[in-house]
Design goal:
The protein is mainly β. The protein is built from no helices and 8 strands. It has strands spanning about 5-10, 15, 20-25, 35-40, 45-50, 55, 60-65, 65-70. The strands form 3 sheets. A 3-stranded antiparallel beta sheet has the order 1-3-6, with no helix packed on it. The radius of gyration is 12 Å and the shape is elongated.
Length: about 70
């Protein structure tokens, strides 16, 4: 089994203000991606169940750690 792959299209690391849209390209060599979940500082902040794989989040000002899983 090969895990899905994700590639960030825009990955903010410093947020000045306002919401940001997180976007990834997701693919799975063994099948079809059915969900992408987005995290900020280890906490789930949204998910997408179909492309485009995006989530909108309104983080606090400063440096944030974003990640995603499929």
């Amino acid at each position: 089994i090969v895990p899905p792959t994700l590639a960030w299209k825009n990955l903010p690391t410093r947020v000045e203000k306002g919401p940001v849209t997180l976007t990834v390209d997701a693919s799975d060599a063994d099948g079809q991606v059915v969900k992408v979940e987005f995290f900020m500082n280890g906490t789930s902040v949204g998910e997408a169940s179909a492309p485009p794989w995006t989530a909108s989040v309104d983080p606090p000002q400063g440096i944030q750690a974003f990640s995603a899983t499929a």
